[in-house]
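Final report, closing paragraph on structural work. Over the funding period we assembled a curated collection of sequence-structure pairs, and we close with a single example.
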Amino acid sequence: KQWYQRRVRGDFTFSRTVIEQQKLEVTNMERAKNKAYPPLIKWLKGNFSEAFLNWTHVKALRLFTESVLRYGLPATFMTAILEPNKKSEKKLREKLTSLYGNLDKNAADSTDLGDIPAMFLTGDYYPYVYFDVNTAFVDNA
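Its predicted structure, as stored:
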């Protein structure tokens, strides 16, 4: 038998009662969803701040770990959150590279990234620790 012949459970038989039962079941499920939606939104609004705070804490731990892996102990570094415009992002990267380029000689030669002590090496490599934080889910209204 072919693969499509093995998957067929049985012949299809048309039945109005089965179709009506399925429509009723869909209607009941939509009612249940609409009834559960307002309490869910209320719960999400109440717990979002705690989840966001914990997520930010994990990002800070990741920043600390990455900094210690790259630059060693003692951990003497500055943390900053920057949100540049799309137009000025390249200019900001050039300025940061000129300011902190002396910290990491591996960043000058980004072709061989094999010996860089980094825990979360994803994407581009810069002489400073960089993480992209997506906050598109935050309502700015």
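The chain has a mean pLDDT of 79. The helical segments are 3-6, 16-71, 89-100. We thank the funder for supporting this effort.
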